[in-house]
Structure formats: C-alpha cells, structure tokens
Amino acid sequence: MKELLRTTDPTIIAFAMALLRGEGIDCFEMDVNMSVLEGGIGIFPRRILVHEDRLIQAERVMADNEIPLGRP
Length: 72
Fold this sequence. Notes:
The protein is built from three helices and three strands; from the N terminus they run E-H-E-H-E-H. By secondary structure, the chain is α+β, with helices and mostly antiparallel strands. 39% of the residues lie in helices and 21% in strands. A three-stranded antiparallel β-sheet has the order 1-3-2, with helices on one face. It has helices spanning 10-22, 34-38, 55-64, and strands at residues 2-7, 27-30, 46-50. The protein has a single domain, classed as UreE, C-terminal domain (Alpha-Beta Plaits), CATH 3.30.70.
C-alpha cells in the first residue's frame, strides 16, 4: 500500500474515498482513531492508502477532481 492523500479535512477524505470507490480502486483510511488522542481538534492528518499498482490511476482521479494530495 502506498500513501495517496494526507489531510486534516474530513470532508476531503470522504469525497476522495467516494471517488476512488466509484472508480473501483480499493482504498484504506489510516489514522482515523487519532481523534481520540487529539480531542477532535483536527491537528493530526489522516491518510488514504491505495495498492501501489493503482497509485497512478488514483492520482489521476484526484487531479481530475482538483483534490490536492498534501503529501510531504
């Protein structure tokens, strides 16, 4: 699995995952439970991972929908 997206905005995560699933790209959301540690203030970014074979296709889906990847 490779990191596709990193953001603190939960709406971007939800939208990106819906787009990926709509394209048939399996994805996994990481760091969901960090909100317990941070108290829900949104300082820790969440990540979306995709299989490395589908990374380029997933990046294209994000670019087509103007979603910044936010990776370091």
